[in-house]
Amino acid sequence: MNAIRVLPELLVSQIAAGEVVERPASVLKELVENSLDAGARAITVTLDQGGTRRIQVEDDGEGIAREDLSLALARHATSKIRSLQDLEGVASMGFRGEALASIASVSRLAIASRRRDAAHGARIAAEGAAAGEVEPAARAQGTSVTVEDLYFNTPARRKFLRSEATELGHCDEAFRRAALARCDVAFALRHNGRASRHLRSQPLAERAAALLGEEFVNASVAVQAQSAGLRLFGLAGTPQAAKTRADAQYFFVNGRFVRDRVLAHAAREAYAELLHGERQAAYVLFLELDPRGVDVNVHPAKTEVRFRDARAVHQFVRHALGRALAPSAAEAPVAYAALSHGAPIQAAFALAQPSRAYGAFTTIPAPQADRAPPLGFALGQVHGVYIVAQNDAGLVLVDMHAAHERIVMEKLKKSLDAGAVQAQALLVPAVFQAEALELAAAEENREALAQLGLEVSVSGPNELSVRAAPAPLAGGDVAGLARELLRELREYGASQVLSSRQNELLATMACHAAVRANRALALPEMNALLREMEETERSGSCNHGRPTWYQLTMGDLDKLFLRGR
Ligand SMILES: Nc1ncnc2c1ncn2[C@@H]1O[C@H](COP(=O)(O)OP(=O)(O)OP(=O)(O)O)[C@@H](O)[C@H]1O
Ligand SMILES: [Mg+2]
User: Fold this and answer.
1) Quick check: 523 pLDDT over 70?
2) 204 to each of 121, 183, 233, 335, how far by Cα in Å?
3) Which residue among 199, 231, 347, 398 is buried most deeply as judged by most CB within 10 Å?
4) Contact (Cβ atoms closer than 8 angstroms) between residue 50 and residue 64
5) What are the φ/ψ torsions at residue 124 (nearest 5 degrees)?
6) CA 19 to CA 87: how far, in whole Å?
7) What dihedral do alpha carbons 135, 138, 142, 147 form, nearest 10°?
8) How far is the CA of 436 from the centre of ligand 1 (A)?
């Protein structure tokens, strides 16, 4: 073995760069964070060739003093912390004093800056960390950092760069994260000489609409919760905003975009009862807490964090989000009602003013004589599928099967949470042919089945009978349901079926029980369904995440008929 040697400074920086500067997008992230730390009000990002040729970030922040310019490029040099105590309560994005040094070691980097009180600006350039002299430069207050030819001196690394379009995509995502994190700051993005994004300082809903689309914002609810030093706010997509890919899940902790398992899991649980299967939630959420309660010094890129009290954070986020997502129909968010797919009606419901939109049908504790209940009174049925009702605001349309499914599901869930689903003996047992494996599964899972409100017993060499079923299911296809449950139990085992797969299972049961479309209901039955919806959590969307009802206000109807113009 060779003798032990201290590595040269440049190599040390290049090794560090391996962790921090994964690709052009990481440079963009670091530079923008520096601008934010400098109190910038406006940040312009300019890219050439997806950032592989050039990344420039200009800001109007406090600037760097002429005599500090060369220090800014030095490793372990920072203006942001001075002690371990500072580190433990760090509130700035940066604190390692390493980003610029790392970037400089693998690129041609130049900084030009001017502080407000300085008579002139100054500039320094470095190539592979060999810094030149500080020179005077004409410029306004603020800083611009230009990074050219990333990895020009580390060919092995350069090979990992992907196509211009791919690197641009990553840069755009880094830009999007920063711009979502700070909607109070103006941002602009230019690529190959053309403006691609321009965002003024604006409210979050506007910023999110610009970056994630109007559809997301129109189908989201505002989240706002606070408890014991924790605050959660932002926009949570309803099931209508769900996507096939988990690419619109933004969590920020004290303004920093993070990928965190605790938070992701809490969100998944909050959404579990609304989204099944392949649908992925969309959200932009901000968690704020005392910086001392979260360690951001976990990974050089700082996208991971460690919470001091992870359990408390998990619980808080899960419940705050769950509450925001789970209103009963009586207090359903406007998003459900406002989804009038491109019709001009939608404008009336801009999420920016949720209070106004809610106004028409906020929770009314008990129906008063002169006011209709939130979902109104039924007028009739359309082709056995939809209920038409009238409330104070106007017209209500309800998908009765979807709504009933949700009601049954929530009922089953409540009784299961309380111990077991209540079974009701069937007058005539439902008998069905079964294979040996199904017979065995019925025997083995007798207890789990009982917990789900089913009594299944072997009544012949290849025959099973259902003797009792949950009350709301008694009139339905009990044998079909029993078959499906047995299949689930065989595939996943009782404990999993009753825990992690519980929601899917209850949804299956509810589907078997719910009133089928094409069934004629009498008005009292329809009204009973509406009243139940008002009392049921999450009744604004069915177990598969589709909406269960729409509101058309008198204003919407007037617009449809061009009245009052
Ligand atoms: N845009 C800017 N405006 C003002 N000062 C800046 C700017 N960019 C960098 N600086 C100064 O240069 C120093 C070094 O920046 P660098 O990004 O290398 O480290 P850091 O931000 O302190 O920590 P980290 O490595 O965690 O990012 C900063 O501490 C800051 O004082
Ligand atoms: Mg920094």
Assistant:
1) yes
2) 34, 6, 10, 17
3) 398
4) no
5) -140, 145
6) 20
7) -60
8) 70
DSSP-derived secondary structure for 200-264 = -S--HHHHHHHHH-HHHHHTEEEEEEEETTEEEEEEEE-GGG-BSSS-SEEEEETTEE---HHHH
Nearest CA among 24, 34, 28, 89 for reference residue 61: 34
Atom of ligand 1 nearest to the CA of 98: 25
Q: What is the pLDDT of residues 359-382, one digit of tens each?
A: 333 333 344 456 788 899 999 999
Number of neighbours of residue 563 by Cβ within 10 angstroms: 10
Q: Which ligand minimizes its atom distance to the CA of 36?
A: 1
DSSP string of 468-489?
Answer: EEEGGGTTS-HHHHHHHHHHHH
Residue nearest to atom 28 of ligand 1 (CA): 78
Q: How many A from CA of 62 to the centre of ligand 1?
A: 12
Q: What is the pLDDT of residue 370?
A: 63
pLDDT at residue 200, as a whole number: 96
Q: Where are the strands (E) in 90-134, listed by range?
A: 108-114, 121-127, 130-131
The pLDDT of residue 358 is 29
Residue nearest to atom 29 of ligand 1 (CA): 78
**What is the phi/psi pair of residue 557, to 5°?**
-65, -40
| Alpha carbons 386 and 506: distance in angstroms, whole number | 24
Quick one: which of 401, 402, 403, 397 has its CA closest to 380? 397
Per-residue confidence at 493, pLDDT binned at 50, 70, 90?
A: confident
Please give the distance, rounded to the nearest whole angstrom, from the Cα atom of residue 331 to the centre of ligand 1: 47
Structure tokens at 460: 């012949």
- Tell me which residues have their CB closer than 6 angstroms to ligand 1: 30, 34-35, 38, 59, 61-64, 72, 78-80, 94-101, 143
Residue 107's nearest CA partner among 79, 130, 123, 76 is 130
Tell me which ligand sits closest to the C-alpha of residue 147. 1
Tokens (6 digits) for 206: 């506007």
Instruction: Please check whether residue 27 is in contact with residue 55, taking contact to mean a CB–CB distance below 8 angstroms.
Output: yes
pLDDT tens-digit map of 404-459: 888 888 888 888 888 888 888 888 888 999 888 889 999 999 998 999 899 999 99
Among 78, 81, 103, name the best residue to mutate to test ligand 1's pocket (greatest count of ligand atoms within 8 A of Cβ): 78
